[in-house]
Amino acid sequence: MNNNEAIITMILLFLLGLGLVLLVIYLGLKLIDVIYINVFKRPLWVHFYWYKKRLNKKQQQILKEKFTFYNKLSSLNKKRFEHRVIRFVGDKEFIAREGLILDDEKKLLIAATAVMLTFGMRDYLIPIIEKVIVYPDVFYSTINQEDHKGEFNPMLRALVLSWKDFEEGFRIDDDNLNLGIHEITHAIHINSIKRTDTASVIFSDGFYELQQLLLNENVKTRIMESSYFRDYAFTNKFEFLAVVLENFIESPDEFKGQFPLVYKKIRQMFNFRFAGY
């Protein structure tokens, strides 16, 4: 073996050794992550970005003026939030219907709603949503042949919204009525059923525990007799969760005061540990 062959052999052995070390580190971190999730019901880490994308001044101003949640975040979390909003907008196909002008503001506010709900999740892009279709007002749904304000269509992988009703949901931010939160919660729920990423596992496990909690007659009776959740919540388990999230986001203190165990489970499912929640 000549010197060149010896050098090449040494390099190959070094790269092989380095690859094995990195593999062991990766598998070790995965194992620690799984153990951490099982013990603490939350991911070991949520935010890691080589480079954070930033909204421009005009876009930041839109969030400051029209998205209350953004203003509750720390300076660091605002930067993380902006990065995720940009990624979400870039990841989805936004489609306007019936002459609606789908400008930057509309895209930002829809994306911000999704990012708000997934801000405690490592996997935050909700891949089951491929298209965001926006109508100016109520639209005819082919799902059940009725007029809708919003829906998530899993067959089309589309989030469909009436802009008028989406905007109305944020006009009053403490009435527990928010179309964007409601429909995006449906998408997150269905996404968690179909996937096995960290966020989906935590969500699904938490939802199962929530269902078990609701089997408690005392809890169930108090919820049914309370006027805190609107009647639509009791349509089925999917609608219950979507309505509950509207209350969780818009009136957290009242929610926590009335139903602390349910509040705790929702907080666990979404890993909502920021902005005063």
UniProtKB/TrEMBL annotation:
The chain crosses the membrane at residues 6-29. InterPro entries: MtfA_fam, MtfA_N. Pfam families: Peptidase_M90 (PF06167). SUPFAM superfamilies: Metalloproteases ('zincins'), catalytic domain. Keywords: Membrane, Transmembrane, Transmembrane helix. This is Zinc-dependent peptidase.
